[in-house]
Amino acid sequence: MSSSHDPLLQPYRIKHLELRNRIMSTSHEPAYSEDGFPKQRYRLYHAEKAKGGIALTMTAGSAVVSADSPAAFGNLHAYQDEIVPWLKELSDSVHEHGSAIMMQITHLGRRTNWNKADWFPVLAPSPVREPAHRAFPKAAEDWDIARIIADYADAAERMKAGGLDGIELECYGHFADQFWSPATNKRTDEYGGDLDNRMRFSLRMINAIRERVGSDFIVGVRMVADEDWELGFDREVGVEIAQRLIATGQIDFLNLIRGHIDTDAALSNLIPIQGRRSAPHLDFCGEIRKETKFPILHAARISDVATARHAIAEGKLDMVGMTRPHIADPHIVNKIAAGREHEIRPCVGATYCLDRIYEGHEALCIHNPATGREATMPQIISKSKGAAKRIVVVGAGPAGLEAARVSAARGHSVTVFEAANEPGGQVRLITRVPRRREMIGIVDWRVSECERDGVEFRFNTYAEVADILGLEPDVVFIATGGIPNTEILDGGNDLVHSGWDILSGDIKPGQRVIVYDDNAAHAGIAVAEFVALSGAELEIVTPERFFAADIGGLNHAGYAEVFADHNVRITINSRVRSIKRKGNRLSAKIGSDYSKKTRDRTVDQVIVEHGTLPLEDLYFELKPVSKNLGEVDYQALRSGGLQDIAANADGSFQLFRIGDAISSRNIHAGIYDALRLAKDL
Ligand SMILES: Cc1cc2nc3c(=O)[nH]c(=O)nc-3n(C[C@H](O)[C@H](O)[C@H](O)COP(=O)(O)O)c2cc1C
Ligand code: SF4
Predict the structure, then answer these.
(1) For residue 346, which atom of ligand 2 is closest to its CA?
(2) Please, which residues bridge with residue 514 across strands?
(3) Taking 80 as the threshold, does the pLDDT of residue 233 lie above it?
(4) How many helices (H) and strands (E) would you count in the chain?
């Protein structure tokens, strides 16, 4: 489709604001804030999307308007005047590249905790606890309500002073809509009971904001239009709320949400995780757009350009949110406009980004390590100005493929050796779990980029030292990965299987199975899901305080559903000590760090997950003849600088180990290893 006719690339106007196309990033807190302010990291992150052609970036996730709404996940402090200069820099840097910028503000209500910042009590319309954040809130008093309305107006004024094009009021699962919902509003005063009363807070708040910012500043509402919950309100009430907000004449757009967010299970449908269907709430939004005839924005797993285009072409939305897709690739719009849609790095829905913020870290994309690191890592690889080099990569898992992709994009000649008959390494194994098939996008995108840039792949080839040296390389990447480390029991190690044995199809799942997960990441519970789906009677045993402690809440939700549906027994705080044969079955001795007691359990299969041990022989064979003796300059690695260690004058090539060939880690770690070593070659 030519860009001049592409529905996605047509401009759109909200009030006086001309948006250059129909693609936006909805509000999300990447937890890049520093001291509660959007400093350099925040700024570069949003500026990159602006460079990439996005029409509107909605910044912050829930910048907090009051001090008694302490940041739950790195939220910006909209309640402090000192934020204004930082906002100015942020909005200037986005405007400079032709995009519009707004910010979402909120009072989190019960969706935070009291044990941080100023230790103020958590506040909500009624003392109903939110399971996800677990605080028991105080019911807001009259003076709280008056104070928070004034705080909203103050914060809105700061946003305007900061040069933003507008604001969005967060009204799903937060203080304002906690008044709307019968699940959270049990009040009997003028703020509880019928809808007039339940909307009183939000209408007063919007009124106060409008009085403060005037009529020409854009104010929108991100609102839940159907809580899809037996305790909450339905679509009919949601539409009524929308109509009443519109009737105030004080708002300029609605950004629609369907569902509720008080538990991980519920949130995983509202922000649909991997394996959930594409664009689940799009038709719903289209219906509401028809009924309200008002500007409608929306995002929820509209991850591919075809679906986004359909949303606009069919009049379901005015602006389509592609939020995680922009975390995966901030240059989506430019690639569409240039007819290079197929080069968009796909968002595979892994939701590593969001899970990290709930675990107290910053958002990072599972397969784009440049996002959030724009100060040191490039989103677009530029051609090297030096002479073309010969690069050899051993291993075509995610780390090896990234090293090959980046090296080839630099203009070098790249050969990849891979022992298997196809690329992907452990990622390909993960895709044997049906819910996680999309992960193959991590491999397919890299292979396609490599093919375009002329990378030579040699599959079914165990690279020997002579093969590598025969290519006279300038740089060698060892990305050979690892092998499962299952020999961790006091006895019976020869009787266990690895997750790889099962996922590869070499060994079929047994009927009564123990998965002993002494890793706490995806690997163990992914194989557990595969086994559970086979119909086996399954017990997961883990020494951790809860299962797969290292994955976040949204990924947890996907596994927990399968385990609950298949009656999987989950035993925490326990270790499989040893295994012995018992007739044609196995007897597993299970103990605990907390007690000397043990119990025996009879099963017919034990699967052990304890990460991998690096496949490093080739690295150590090459090390003595390499220029850098395998050494990495960590200071340069930190700052994004050049690697120029030359400890061996006789060496003719640089040697780098990356990914699990160093130690058992995750996809992001391996890809980041590769990017930061290859980007300056
Ligand atoms: C890291 C991260 C943080 C988020 N924080 C917020 C937030 O504070 N407020 C909000 O309204 N939505 C937040 N969201 C939800 C997004 O705005 C969006 O609704 C969601 O990611 C679904 O859209 P997508 O499938 O295009 O990513 C967050 C999403 C992510 C990935
Ligand atoms: S971590 Fe996964 S969901 Fe998040 S942006 Fe990256 S690919 Fe998308």
Answers:
(1) 7
(2) 539, 606
(3) yes
(4) 23, 27
Instruction: Give distance in angstroms: CA of 58 to centre of ligand 1.
Output: 10
- Please choose, from the candidates 311, 239, 325, the residue with its C-alpha nearest in 3D space to the C-alpha of residue 279: 311
Q: How far apart are CA 317 and CA 7, in angstroms?
A: 11
pLDDT per position as a tens digit, 583-625: 999 999 999 999 999 999 999 999 999 999 999 999 999 999 9
- Going by alpha carbons, the residue nearest to atom 6 of ligand 1 is 28
What residue ranges line ligand 2, CB within 6 angstroms? 324, 327-328, 347-353, 365-367
pLDDT tens-digit profile of 535-561?
999 999 999 999 999 999 999 999 999
Provide the β-strand partners of residue 656: 477
Q: pLDDT at position 358, please? A: 86
Distance, CA 667 to ligand 2 centroid (Å)?
A: 12
For the range 489-492, what are the long-range contacts, defined as Cβ-Cβ under 8 Å and sequence gap of 24 or more? 489/576, 489/577, 489/578, 489/579, 489/608, 490/577, 490/578, 491/577, 491/578, 491/579, 491/580, 492/578, 492/579, 492/580, 492/586, 492/606
**Cβ–ligand 1 contact at 61 (below 6 Å):** yes
pLDDT digits (tens, 9 = 90+) for 175-199: 999 999 999 999 999 999 999 999 9
Which listed ligand is nearest to 301 at the C-alpha? 1
- Helix H or strand E encompassing 639: helix 634-639
Whether the predicted pLDDT of 288 surpasses 70: yes
Q: What is the pLDDT of residue 586?
A: 98
Dist. CA 324 → ligand 2 center (Å): 6
Residue 289 to residues 14, 278, 284, 292, 297: CA-CA distances in angstroms? 15, 19, 9, 5, 9
Q: Could you identify the atom of ligand 2 that is nearest to the CA of residue 351?
A: 3
Q: What is the mean pLDDT of residues 653-665?
A: 98
Helix (H) or strand (E) holding 254: strand 253-258
Element (H or E) spanning 226, and its range?
Answer: strand 218-226
Distance of CA 45 from the midpoint of ligand 2 (Å): 15
Instruction: Give the model's pLDDT for residue 73.
Output: 84
Q: How far is 322 from 337, CA to CA, in rounded Å? A: 16
Contact 78, 47 (CB under 8 A): no
Tokens for 438, please give them. Answer: 């999309």
Strands 654-657 and 475-478: parallel
Q: Whose CA is nearest to atom 28 of ligand 1?
A: 28
Strand 218-226 relative to strand 253-258, pairing? parallel
Long-range residue pairs from 419-425, CB within 8 A, at least 24 positions apart, any chain: 419/395, 419/460, 419/461, 419/462, 420/396, 420/459, 420/460, 421/459, 421/460, 422/459, 423/396, 423/397, 423/447, 423/457, 423/459, 424/396, 424/397, 424/398, 425/395, 425/396, 425/397, 425/398, 425/400, 425/481
Render the burial of 340-355: b for 16+ CB within 10 Å, e for the rest. ebeebbbbbbbbbbbb
Q: According to the model, what pLDDT value does residue 72 have?
A: 83
- Give the pLDDT of residue 3: 66
Give buried/exposed letters for 168-193 (b at 16+ CB in 10 A, else e). bbbbbbbbbbbbbbebbbebeeebbe
Task: Give the mutation target among 22, 25, 28, 257 for probing the ligand 1 site: most ligand atoms within 8 A of CB.
Answer: 28
Predicted confidence (pLDDT) per residue in 434-492, tens digit: 999 999 999 999 999 999 999 999 999 999 999 999 999 999 999 999 999 999 999 99
Q: Cα(19)–Cα(297) distance, rounded to whole angstroms?
A: 13
